[in-house]
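Incident review: delayed structure delivery

Summary: a single-chain prediction request sat in the queue longer than the usual turnaround. Root cause was a stuck worker, restarted by the on-call engineer. No data loss occurred. The affected request and its eventual output are reproduced below so the record is complete for anyone auditing the incident later.

Affected input:
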Amino acid sequence: MTHEAPDQGLPDRADVLIPVAISVRHVHLSPATIDRLFGAGHQLHVHAELSQPGQYAAEETVDLVGPHGRIGHVRVVGPPRAQDQVEISRSDEFTLGIDAPVRESGDLHDTPGIRVEGPAGGADLARGVISALRHVHMSPADAAVLGVRDQDRVAIAVESGSRRLVFGDVLVRVSEAFRLELHLDTDEGNAAGVRPGDMGVLV
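Output delivered after worker restart:
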């Protein structure tokens, strides 16, 4: 359920364009796991800054090893976290042989584990593999304009070329540190034919 913001002369939320980003498979690693995979005291190197402030794609990559297959060159996303987390798509699950639940980032209870290999060694993670719940980041100011609150579920329509798709059950995440952006995984983005620069609207 969404909550309508008071009318304070703000733009109509149907006029607010939401940038769409595709979140490809990646891993978040704890300092201890970084040491095991890349060597003691290793510091991640920034490959590219991401749209969300403070987040970056690291130069470092790892291999994911599941019961039925392997996926190489998976990007590490920094900065390091308190918990290891591996985010993959449903198609990746078939390749690896892992049934990962759809979860919000950080909700790792009862999630499967996986083996992660780096240039200096490997780590068998007991848990942490998820298929990320599609979500939209926004600031409190954005939330006021759109009439929503943190943890609401909304529907967002995305149109790319001649293909239009409405994504339901999009989790709203509100923070002063966030920039307005809808995050889809590769399967969802491919289904909608999403291209760089595409936008969505709340429906």
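Verification: Helices lie at 31-38, 90-96, 140-146, 186-192.
Action items: add queue-age alerting; document worker restart procedure.
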